[in-house]
From TrEMBL:
It comes from Methylobacterium pseudosasicola. It comes from the Bacteria. This is Uncharacterized protein.
Length: 58
């Protein structure tokens, strides 16, 4: 079936400029990792404060 479709295309297909080149995926992945790391660091600080007898900010 693919061979039939490929023979019916008159020329190479031009890709549009609005495709994700991968940089957007990389940026969003890094932003998610930073946010998750910040949330984990805040949770550790809260646990340390509570273990020291201080108030729990949560």
């Amino acid at each position: 079936m693919l061979a039939f479709i490929a023979t019916r295309i008159p020329g190479p297909v031009a890709e549009t400029a609005d495709r994700d080149p991968g940089i957007l995926t990389l940026v969003f992945t890094l932003a998610r990792a930073v946010r998750t790391g910040a949330e984990a660091a805040f949770a550790r600080r809260c646990a340390l404060a509570e273990a020291a007898g201080g108030p729990n900010p949560l």
